[in-house]
Amino acid sequence: SPQRKPKITASRKLLLKSLMLAKAKECWEQEHEAREAEKSRYLAERIPALQTRGLSLSALQDLCRDLHAKVEVVDEERYDIEAKCLHNTREIKDLKLKVLDLRGKFKRPPLRRVRVSADAMLRALLGSKHKVSMDLRANLKSVKKEDTEKERPVEVGDWRKNVEAMSGMEGRKKMFDAAKSPTSQ
């Protein structure tokens, strides 16, 4: 027989599970820190630090107008990207539904049992032009009742005696002996 692997004990399974969770948490934290560092690096690269010290009122107002204009441009880009994302998600959803329809794995409604005769079914399949009548009983073989009763002689006896006689090793031995030499007895 093939060698079976030993089962892991519950305490060992719990220990492994906790170790896996700790490792997953550590990886998640490292990924989060890396993402934050990348974000701050990108922002420092794209947006230089503001130098407002020593600027006059008109220079500060010009700076504010420039910043507002940049914010509007970025907001418009964000809106466009958001609209594209919504459009793409809708398109993906429609394509998934089409794939499901093509596969045939859509949810089927619960079907009711409807009694339909063979004639009505053939008429539905072949159309109303073809008049087909089908008597299913006409093609059946006729069997006389007396013939079936003669074929099977019925023995009525105590079934418990037969079960007791054939139970255990003696019954198996009798069956073996009977199969071995039916004419010797």
From TrEMBL:
What terms describe the molecular function in GO for this protein? actin binding
Extract one GO cellular component term from the record.
troponin complex
User: What protein name does the entry list?
Assistant: Troponin I, cardiac muscle
One example of a Gene Ontology biological process annotation: cardiac muscle contraction
Q: Does the keyword Nucleotidyltransferase apply?
A: no
Q: Which Gene3D superfamilies match?
A: 1.20.5.350, 6.10.250.180
Keywords, in A-Z order: Acetylation, Actin-binding, Muscle protein
Xref: SUPFAM superfamilies: Troponin coil-coiled subunits (SSF90250)
A Pfam family in this protein? Troponin
User: Could you name the domain of life of the organism this protein comes from?
Assistant: Eukaryota
Role, per record: Troponin I is the inhibitory subunit of troponin, the thin filament regulatory complex which confers calcium-sensitivity to striated muscle actomyosin ATPase activity.
The upper taxonomy is: Eukaryota, Metazoa, Chordata, Craniata, Vertebrata
Family the UniProt entry places it in: Belongs to the troponin I family.
